[in-house]
Amino acid sequence: MSFTAKESERVFHYLFTFVLMVGAVTYFAQASDLGWSAVRQVDSLGNGVIRQMFWVKYVNWLVAFPSLALGLGLISGVSWTTIICNIALSLYWVVSYLAGAYVTTSYKWGFFAFGTFAWLILAMSTINESHEAAQLLGVDKDYIILSGWTNLLWIIYPIAWGLTDGGNKIGVTGTSIFFGVLDVLMVLVLSFAVLILASKWDYRKLSIAFSDSRPSRETEAASPLKGTSPQVVE
């Protein structure tokens, strides 16, 4: 799909292609039984004292969640300050959950609380402030679909973490299936939804036609070569 879009309208193609490539390699690692650590558990010991915790899925989220925050920010037209803040919040969220997954005492729930608080701020920003900005650009209907879907799934991640790496309620296989379904619905479905909806957007109005800032094949084809003058037909 990247090759069918104009050069100035490929920002989301490139962004989500990279996210999907990272997701593919992390899930390949899990399927190969790589990228995990043995972590002693403090809760639900009936399901095992030592848990196989796949840290590689957090690597996927460290790329996917900030990329989703970036994508929503570009669509809504919020300031770069807000976009960077949302990216930082998503990183803080994932790192807090990763740290909590390694803690072998009940203090892990402290990390869970910090990470979940960061997600709440991120959710309020992407739902409220960003939606108001999207209204000014006339893409509010599309944005509310995308941000609503994203935040609906983001709500489930804290619950899933509490049942898996946090509370040890669900086994390793169930954990992989649980997060696998969430990640597919989050990244794959959202990626195609953005690309489909983006086909009717005015990238210049959204200020995301980034190749306009440098010469491209499109602009070179539309303008005469340097040092030559256009021919005048008499």
TrEMBL record:
Entry's localization field: Membrane
UniProt keyword list: Membrane, Transmembrane, Transmembrane helix
Membrane topology category: Multi-pass membrane protein
InterPro entries (alphabetical): Arc/bac/fun_rhodopsins (IPR001425), Yro2-like_7TM (IPR043476)
Transmembrane segments annotated in the record for this chain: 12-29, 58-76, 83-103, 109-127, 143-164, 176-198
Location (main, coarse): membrane
GO cellular component annotations of the record: endoplasmic reticulum; plasma membrane
Top-level taxon: Eukaryota
Family designation: Belongs to the archaeal/bacterial/fungal opsin family.
Protein name: Uncharacterized protein
